[in-house]
Amino acid sequence: MTIIDTHAHIYSPDEKKYPPIEKPYRPPAGKGSLERLRQESAANGVEAVCAIQTSTFYAFDNRYICDSAKANPKWVAGVCTLNPDDPKSPALLAQFVREYGLRGMRSIPARNGALNHDGVRTLWKTALDRNIVVNALTGREKEAELTALLNTFPKLNVVLDHCMNLKAGPDLGATLAAVLRLSRHKNLHAKLTFVPTGSESGYPCRDMHESCMKVVEAFGADRCVWGSDFPAERWTPKVSYAEHLRIFTHDLPLREAARTAILGGTAKRLWFNRE
Question: What pLDDT is stored for residue 49 in this prediction?
């Protein structure tokens, strides 16, 4: 079975070449580098990864993502994050795709909080023109705006990062309902990274299994992907990389065909079906 990790954040140990922001959200020393990710993924049978720009460490400085993707084109699909308020961002996106082979962009709201915003729409149009994937990072309060964008760009492949941060607790039902409503958009895909981040317990995070299975049922496994939230020491401290993967290989009651799609088949189609 092909396994692809669609959500890893990487941090360079060379902070002179790739300087962090003033107050970075830092992982434990030595735990977030690309080489560490290579070790973790290889040890768990993961064949390829999507490296997601670490905005809490680098903001909009995408150099580490770009360089890592260019140096490892068969193993790393780079996903940048760009400022929708900066008029230079669309040209930068086109450059990143052309010169570094980036295959995705993480989309965030504009400075004024709007997701359905001129700057966001221009970036989505650039992504469509360059045939790359958009990862939408947003909460349920932006459901209507995300719906408008999906209606505007029905041919653009979009992934819902963390499924609006589904989390055990009083808001779970409302957030899940929003995610399920969005499943009607056939170009939208669900990133199932929320199981350990949303759980109130450690492995196997059973309090999130029912919600995860409802998302899979609504979207279909061919529109769902797994991601590790690497480095686990920072983003899933109660669940290791291997345990997170095991939830999807063993613990969730998935049919084998669905497991195959979620763990690699869908991701391969979205990010790795390129020459």
Answer: 98
Pseudo-torsion of CA 201, 205, 211, 215, nearest 10°? Answer: 140
- Helices 63-71 and 89-100: crossing angle in degrees, nearest 10, is 20
Report the distance separating Cα 125 and Cα 107, nearest Å.
12
- Taking 70 as the pLDDT cut, the residues of the chain under it are 274-275
Structural domain harbouring 22: 4-272
CATH code, 236: 3.20.20.140
pTM exceeding the 0.85 threshold for the entire prediction? yes
SS3 for 245? helix
